[in-house]
Amino acid sequence: MIIVTKRNVARETLDEALNLLHQGGLEPRAVSWKNQMLLVTHRCPSSAEIAGLEKTGIVDKLIDTNAKAQLASRDFRNEASIVEIEKVAIGAENLVIIAGPCSVESREQLLEVAGAAKRLGATLLRGGVFKPRTSPYEFQGLAEQGLRLLAEAREETGLPVVTEVLESEKVDLVSKYADMLQIGARNMQNFSLLRAVGKSKMPVLLKRGMMATIDEWLQAAEYVLLEGNPDVVLCERGIRTFERATRNTLDLAAVPVLRKQTHLPILVDPSHATGSRDLVAPMSKAAIAAGADGLMIEIHPNPEKALSDNHQQLNLQEFAELMKELGLFATAAGRKLR
Ligand code: PEP
Ligand code: MN
């Protein structure tokens, strides 16, 4: 249950209510949510417990929910949430296109991609600088030097920047340069990292774990929300199945399923989902048709030479063509592209 407390309740009253809930074994969590204080309990209080709580005078509203991810649920908030990053609103009428290279490789590469992304209508710039690579021998990213390049690209283009953070210890560093923190598929259930990005209060792009159910994914989002960070965006990027023709299996049904269950914005990453550049355009269109709030697409000036994910990145010409085609699909889905 979520107890929305009245505004300006005295600290002592709050403590009294928390004590009451503790005594009943309800394990309450006090969450400072925008400008309200919420008490979230892990089970529903009995009617006697509710009566006791009402007596403290703290209760503004009680939200009864069976959802495991309570703050992510539609029971808590029935309207779609919009996550704002600078002037970009994720979850609003305009579709958000996050574009950029898999990895930041050099100043020339990044500035070329960033300029093209901006010109062609992307709304956010991506680029990995801490790369979660399967092999320790593969390119691991430019680390802080890459963060500085991302900041320079933002300066040049005005595009806000999203980049992955792999470890809790690096959250402060990445937050100094980026506008949004990405939690990658491999870290979706890294609970200490989820808590750390929650505490940072930075907008968070939470990618689906490749073996995660929708339920587990929403509960991962709940870790961030429970730290009082409401700015979480979900990104479907495919799950691992028996199918080998694609790198992952893009679970597009997740989009309408999530839409029913959560108020959080939902993006789709057709690049990591398919692993092949010729599948990015059709699956981008399908994602828009399924109701996604936007896309994350990997682009590179010379994909064949890319230091990571060279099979799936679009070249700048391919991205230009895709952006041209997506306008119609956006309109058909009742959305706008820019
Ligand atoms: C990425 O977006 O850079 C990435 C590594 O994706 P994922 O975590 O979805 O594999
Ligand atoms: Mn990649």
Shape descriptor:
elongated
Total DSSP helices: 11
- SSE pattern: EHEEHEEEEHEHEHEHEHEHEHHEH
Q: Estimate the strand proportion.
A: 15-25%
Q: Kindly provide the radius of gyration, computed on alpha-carbon positions and rounded to a whole number of angstroms.
A: 21 Å
How far apart are the first and last residues' alpha carbons, in Å? 39 Å
Determine the mean pLDDT.
Answer: 97
Sheet/helix structural class? alpha/beta
Which assembly state applies to the chains in this document?
single chain
How can the largest sheet be summarized?
A: 8 strands, parallel, barrel
Q: Helical percent range?
A: 25-40%
Bound molecules: phosphoenolpyruvate, manganese (II) ion
Query: What ranges have pLDDT less than 50 throughout 5 or more consecutive residues?
Result: none
Topology record:
Layout: E1 2-5, H1 11-23, E2 29-33, E3 36-40, H2 47-55, E4 59-63, E5 83-85, E6 88-90, E7 96-100, H3 107-119, E8 124-126, H4 143-157, E9 161-164, H5 171-177, E10 180-183, H6 191-200, E11 204-207, H7 214-225, E12 232-236, H8 254-261, E13 266-268, H9 270-274, H10 277-289, E14 294-298, H11 316-332
Parallel strand pairs: 7-8, 7-14, 8-9, 9-10, 10-11, 11-12, 12-13, 13-14
Antiparallel strand pairs: 1-3, 1-4, 2-3, 5-6
Helix pairs in contact: 3-4, 6-7, 10-11
The protein binds phosphoenolpyruvate and manganese (II) ion.
Manganese (II) ion (MN) is lined by residues 102, 272, 298, 308-309.
